[in-house]
Amino acid sequence: MRSEHVYLELAGKSHVIDLAQQDGTDLIKILVAADELGLQKIVEVIKQYLIDNQSELLIRNPIR
């Protein structure tokens, strides 16, 4: 089972994003932002989470 959490450390503070608590469109926004910032590990975790848990969203609203 894959993690449903993303752990970040920014400015010396730890943060956790609970992917299961995020709306699908918010996850896509986070995914785009992480990609633009070059945060590959976060991109991979969110992409896999979307595939595993939000496939219906991806089918209805394909990312181009």
UniProtKB/TrEMBL annotation:
Protein name: 13286_t:CDS:1
Organism: Racocetra fulgida
Organism taxonomic ancestry: Eukaryota, Fungi, Fungi incertae sedis, Mucoromycota, Glomeromycotina
